[in-house]
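A common beginner's mistake is to predict each chain separately and then try to dock the pieces by hand. The better habit, illustrated here, is to supply every component at once so that their relative placement is modeled jointly.
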Amino acid sequence: MTIQRACCNGEPFFIYCSDDEKQRKTLNSMNQPRKVRIAIQKSGRLNEDSIRLLKECGIEFENGMNKLKSSAINFPMEVLFLRDDDIPKYVEQGVADIGIVGENVLVESSAAVQTIEKLGFGKCRLSIAVPKDKNYSGVKDLEGTRIATTYSIVLQKFLDEKGIKAEIQPISGSVEIAPGIGLADSICDIVSSGSTLFSNGLKEVETVMYSQAVLIAGKCDAEAMRIVDRLLFRMRAVRKANHNKYVLLNAPNEKLEKICSLIPGMKSPTILPLAEAGWSSVHSVIEEDKFWEIIENLRDEGAQGILVVPIEKMVI
Ligand code: PRT
Ligand code: ZN
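With all components supplied together, the output reads:
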C-alpha cells in the first residue's frame, strides 16, 4: 500500500492508495464503471445531515434512502447504511471506500483510515462529569476513581496524557446513570447541550475531546480517488455557501468607498448605478458568523434597503 497525495480545488489531502492493480483491471475488464462506496449512519444523529449533504452536492438516489444500500442515478456512487461504530472498520477493510462518522467514534475505533474533511455537523464533546454536589478541584481528583464510559480508548489516552491512574468501567449504554447506581464515581460521555447531564444530577468537569462528523477514506485506487476528488470539490462548495450570505444594498455614492471596505466579497463588490442620481446598488458576499456586526456597520455608514439572501453553492 502507498499513500498518495491528491488535490481538490487546490486544497490537498492524502489518501491510502491500494497497489492492487489486479482489482482495477478486473473491474475494467467487466466494463463496469467504478463507483465510490460511501458508508453513512443508517439511523441516528448523523443520518439526516449526511443524506442532506450528499443531496446538496446534487447527488440523487434511486428508490429513496431507506434500504441497506442505494445507488446514485447521476453520480458514480453507492451508499451503504451502517451503524456508526462499524463505519471506520468497514472503510479500513475496503468494504466502503469512504465514510461519514463522528470523530469520537473514529478515534475509539483506532482504524487505519484517513480523515479527509471535517464536515461541520454532529458537533459535540466527550466530557467527564461528576455528581453535581461533589467538590472537584482539578483532574488530579480523578486519581484512583472509577469512570464509566463507552469510550475506553479515548478516555485512557486522556488519562495517560494527564498522568492519572483511574479505573475505567466500560459500559455500552445509559452511561449517565452509572454514578447513581454505584457503578462508578464519574462518567465520560458525549455532551451536546448538557441537559442529559443536568437531568441526571451531574456536572461537566473535563473536556476529553471535541468532535464533529468527518469524511474518512481507506484504500482507494486511482479511479476512486478521482471520484472522491469530485465529491470533495462539491462538498466544499456546499459548505462554503452555507457559511456565506449574498448581500444587496443601496448606498449614497459618497459613502461607497467606506461601505465597500466593509464587504470586500470574493474579489470585490459589484457596484451598479441606481435610477436615482447619487445612489448605487452594491452586491457582495459576507460570512455568516460576522453577519450582524457587518450589517450594523453598513447601516451606520448610511446603507439602506439591505437585502440578505442565502447562497446555494459557492465555487471560488
Ligand atoms: O445506532 P448507531 O450505533 O449508529 O448510533 P448511536 O446510537 O451509537 O449514535 P448516535 O446516533 O446517538 O450519535 C451518532 C454521533 O452523533 C455520535 O457518535 C457523535 O459523534 C454525534 N453526536 C452529536 C452525539 C450527540 N451530539 C449527542 N448529544 N451523539 C450522542 N449524543 C447523546 C449523548 O450520548 C447523550 O446521551 O446525547 C446525549 C447528550 O446530549 P445533551 O444535548 O443532553 O448534552
Ligand atoms: Zn453507535
